[in-house]
Amino acid sequence: MDRAQLPVSLLEAALGVVVILAVALGFVVGVPTPDTREPQLTAYANDAATILVNEPPEHRDATRLAEILADERSFQRERGELRDRTDAILPDNIMFRVETPHGAVGFPVPGGVATGEATVTTVEGPLTIRVWYS
Fold first, then answer.
1. What is the torsional sign of CA 71, 72, 77, 78?
2. Which of 33, 67, 32 is nearest to 52 (CA)?
3. In this model, does residue 83 exceed pLDDT 80?
4. Burial class (CB in 10 A: 0-12, 13-18, 19+), 130
5. Which residues have a Cβ under 8 Å from the Cβ of 8 and sit 6 or more positions away?
6. Report field, pTM of the whole predicted structure over 0.85
7. What is the pLDDT of residues 50-62, one digit of tens each?
8. 130 vs 9, 22, 45, 116, 124, CA distance in Å?
9. With 0-12 CB in 10 A as exposed, 13-18 as middle and 19+ as buried, what is 55?
10. Tens digit of pLDDT for each residue in 6-43?
11. How many beta carbons lie within 10 A of that of residue 58, not counting itself?
12. Which of 100, 48, 107 lies closest to 69, judged by CA?
């Protein structure tokens, strides 16, 4: 073997090892999941959350949302109204799910779709709204 070929062969071997390690590292680390949040959908979720937070009460509490989140019994009593009101707030082509510490209303969030999300923190607990196009 010629001495001039020896450094080139070592360089090729080292380059091959680097390529193999890079491919193996790609499998180990994986590909990042795409960000499925969409700004317009997030705006819809934020708007709905803002409206729900500022609605006047129908019963005894300071806000409508405080009544809904007060306890499990209040949530069960008001869940239909929460679903209907959220549906009325959002455009017709938007599906939603509202999650509270006492339960959820709306539709299960399908996988792999663009979504928007807003969370409102209250004394009674968080309320999260997730929306997506139907």
1. positive
2. 67
3. yes
4. buried
5. none
6. no
7. 999 888 877 776 7
8. 57, 38, 6, 6, 19
9. middle
10. 566 777 888 888 888 888 777 777 666 555 568 999 99
11. 11
12. 100
